[in-house]
Amino acid sequence: MKITKISRPIVAMLLALPLFCGTVGAYELTIPTLDYRTGPYAPNGIPFANGYGDYMNMLNARDGGINGAKINLVACETAYNTKRGVECYENTKGEGESGALVYQPLSTGITYQLIPKTAVDKIPVFSMGYGRTSAANGKIFPWVFNFPATYWSQATVFVQYIAEKEGGFDKLKGKKIALVYHNSAYGKEPIRTLESAAAKFGFEFMALPVDHPGQEQKSTWLQVRKERPDWVLMWGWGVMNQVAIKEAASIRYPMDHFIGVWWSGSENDVLPAGDAAHGYLSGAFHQPGGDFPAHTDIRKYVYDKDMGLGDRDRIGEVLYNRGLVAAMWTTEAIRKAMEIHGTNEVKAVHVRDGFEALDVDEARLKELGLPNFTIPVKITCENHEGPGKVALQQWDAKAKKWSLVSGFYEPLRDITGPLIAEDSAQYAKENNVVPRICGS
Amino acid sequence: MIYRETGQFKSSYQADQALFPINQDRYVIFAVLIVTFGIVPMLLNEYWLNAIMLPFLIYSLAAIGLNILTGYCGQVSLGTGGFMAVGAYSVYKLMIAFPELGFIPLVLISGLITAAVGTLFGLPSLRIKGFYLAVATLAAQFFLIWLFNKVGWFYNYNASGMISSPPMTLFGVTITGPEGDMKAKYLLVAGLVAVFALAAKNIARGRIGRNWMAIRDMDIAAELIGVRPLIAKLSAFAVSSFYIGMAGALYFAVWLGSVEPTEAFDINQSFLVLFMIIIGGLGSVLGSFFGAAFLVLMPILLKNIMVDGFGTDAALAAHIEIITVGALIVGFLIIEPHGLAQLWRIAKEKLRLWPFPH
């Protein structure tokens, strides 16, 4: 007790020294990245972090940053662990002259931690297609953005896809749909939506939790084998995905009746199961593949100069593109913030305004070298979810390629709307948040 | 030379039985208290208070709790994570239902609730010992986490199964929730830890503590000289769970603010606290602090030195950190199997004899 307590302030001062020795230069845009390149979720964390970082490094190398202001990426390793994520947040939020401009936690658990904290520190959180679904309500969550779609929208899209394959919503009656989910805030997100949908369309819903980290799923799939659900949905992440797909293959569950959330549909998840994974489906909001002009620029400006974060031949994987699209929307929001406030020296509060006025349409995507890459996104004060549209992609085990197999579905807003209103109102009540008035 | 009792004469039994009979020990404790409550909150910024001091203090409290059970009474427990969860969910439900009671009484009540639950799960200890008891407490761990996942009432039927602490104030300062004042949070936790660490030290050297130690050293002999195993073991479970429950309540309400049962209180949490007391020193309150400091501060310190100091790549630093912490644990246990507290004790012995070692 004696030694540690006395020396702690000394250590604190020693550690703070490098902070004061930083060089003073042009205004830099500090963007912390909460990566996870270690632990059971690393197979998914690595490609995302690579895509996110490579795109921003490409902007730095090609255009000198955003409108000439360089991006300074500050990496912090979270191992997908909530406590380490909080430590990373506290450590990086004051970094650099601009301070942290935006957080992309890539973890629902960390997002839940950051939602109240960032509202106090006034830093936007861009939880792209994950995190708290009811944060779509911008009146109560002004600092959180979860476009282009939420888990609840996605769950209703899966129900629509199933209805389409079964031959209409009336055919859903009496069908059995199972959800295999990561037993955490993330995995539990769609349950309420699916329960509402089950009540509305008359299908039977069963929820099968899988505990962290998800390597042990024998009993879950034994239950699937026993109950024989007509469709299986999965909300998995990390090692859990590949294990689930292998287990499904081993009980010979038809892969084209097995749909993963968009976090359960990357190359890492299906490759270990080999040919047995052929036909597996998952949600998606952007194209797979590495042949867009933006990818060419990344190869030219980043990988040719040996600055790439990952392997050159893994550019264009699903999660790499997911990171890339996140970086694209983030940098576009910062660009918008610069435009609104007429300065390059934007701070986190300005970036929030940029997110709220974000409007990336097809024409803009083309300029960015990503034609037809994703859906157009337009954010408003009330709606932080944006379009909410989701497509499905399918794995071709022979070609080892993902490809979109459906158009983009509109979510069933009559199901998600009331749930979002109810859940965000509950948050507002518990935390004494007064909803802001939009459109003034 | 500096540290010795020579020349300090005790003229009453009271003085001789004081908690810290050597003057220098007492001065150091006072100095530590002054630093803890006076200097640290002024000197350290929000990052240090929130990311380092709070977890260190909260884990110290949990480690003291487990040390009472395992170090003093010799009952191995792997249910710490589950008991912390009981404390957290109790304080959550109480904060929602009776906010007018004030935060500190609510933390104490959740400690009492955990004590009741801990006593219940301590009942098997009357029949089984050692590894078998560890398995029984492991069952508590899994059962409790399953319960908090399964029963919606515990998390107020939240869609994602998470609990978040509502804002509460103490003397007009917000101490829970994101808007809580960091210094107030720190002082509150440090105050509770100081009071209960002192209490633990006193309990441990009194009649109850001696009963526990008798049971730990040889339960049959203890029974023969008149120690009642039922009372001794169950009281150890109750006091231990009380501490762990309070730690769980602070962990959730003051430090993290929102938790989900599976991640925040999983089996790793139980192992972490168990490792703390093994590395720090079984049967030592000071050792609990050492262990918590070692396992909470060391990884963050290593990370900060590598990433901020030398600019190491974050992922590489994370891997080096895992290796280094592991190596240090093995190294320390080879040097001193009885933990860091024993090293401290030896150092003090040596100092007392210095400069004449014989």
Descriptive notes:
With 440 residues, chain A is of the alpha/beta class. Chain A has a 7-stranded mixed beta sheet with strand order 6-5-7-8-9-12-13. Chain A has a two-stranded parallel ribbon with strand order 1-2. A two-stranded parallel sheet of chain A has the order 3-4. Chain A has helices at residues 2-20, 42-63, 82-92, 108-121, 151-166, 185-188, 191-201, 218-227, 239-250, 267-270, 293-303, 318-341, 348-356, 362-367, 413-430, and strands at residues 28-35, 70-77, 125-126, 144-145, 176-182, 204-210, 231-235, 258-260, 281-284, 359-360, 377-378, 391-396, 401-404. Chain A contains 15 helices and 13 strands. In chain A, helix 5 packs parallel to helix 7. In chain A, 43% of the residues lie in helices and 14% in strands. In chain A, strand 7, helix 9 (239-250) and strand 8 form a beta-alpha-beta unit. Mean pLDDT of chain A is 89; it is low at 1-6 and 11-24. Chain B is mainly α and 358 residues long. In chain B, 73% of the residues lie in helices and 2% in strands. Chain B is built from 15 helices and 4 strands. Chain B has helices at 13-16, 23-43, 46-72, 80-97, 103-122, 130-150, 182-205, 207-217, 219-224, 229-256, 261-264, 267-280, 285-310, 314-335, 340-353; strands at residues 163-164, 169-170, 173-174, 258-259. In chain B, the strands form 2 sheets. In chain B, strands 1-4 form a two-stranded antiparallel sheet. Chain B has a two-stranded antiparallel sheet with strand order 2-3. In chain B, strand 2 (169-170) and strand 3 form a beta hairpin. In chain B, helix 4 packs across helix 5, helix 5 packs across helix 10 and helix 13 packs antiparallel against helix 14. Chain B starts with 12 loop residues before the first helix and ends in a 5-residue tail after the last helix. The model of chain B has no long low-confidence stretch (mean pLDDT 89). At the A-B interface, helix 1, strand 2, helix 3, helix 4 and helix 6 of A face helix 2, helix 3, strand 4, helix 11 and helix 13 of B.
